[in-house]
Design a protein that fits this description.
The chain is α/β, with parallel strands linked by helices. The protein is built from four helices and five strands. The N terminus and C terminus are likely disordered.
């Protein structure tokens, strides 16, 4: 395979959590090996912070927060990588729905095992679980390194 030819597409769900940044790193490594392009996808919901008794701040812009988080994650994971084509998308909607749709016709969907959800003790988060069950392509779940695992 020649270096200039791209094959395939890897979609990565990125919410800025440590496991999603680790998933992005894994996807970039895989893309370097296979010549695939990477598409980093971040989803946001307009009313996600209004569940229960959550405080909503008038200056909070979930789309902007998603864009900043995605940009920071790409900057962190892609430093020093010049051979991988990386694109990004920020989409309004439920994260699982957005990722399942984005992964349509992808070779792989890569996700962290847990995002910024409320149930931090779960092995995998609800978005990851839903994508595992409904994505039309293989799903790779990456677990972030946990410093507490060494104890």
């Amino acid at each position: 395979m020649s270096r200039g030819v791209r094959h395939g597409r890897i979609v990565v769900g990125v919410d800025g959590s440590p496991s999603s940044v680790q998933a992005l790193r894994w996807a970039l490594d895989q893309a370097e090996l296979t010549g695939a392009a990477v598409q980093a996808v971040s989803a946001w919901e307009a009313h996600a912070g209004q569940r229960g008794n959550a405080q909503v701040y008038p200056d909070d812009d979930p789309a902007e927060r998603a864009a900043v988080g995605l940009s920071e994650a790409i900057g962190e994971a892609a430093t020093g990588r010049t051979s991988v084509e990386i694109s990004h998308r920020i989409v309004e909607g439920h994260p699982a729905d957005v990722l399942i749709e984005a992964a349509r016709n992808a070779d792989i969907l890569v996700m962290g095992n847990r995002g910024h959800g409320r149930f931090t003790g779960a092995l995998v988060g609800s978005v990851t679980q839903r994508c595992i069950q409904h994505a039309g392509c293989p799903v790779v779940v990456i677990r972030a390194e946990d410093p507490d695992d060494d104890e």
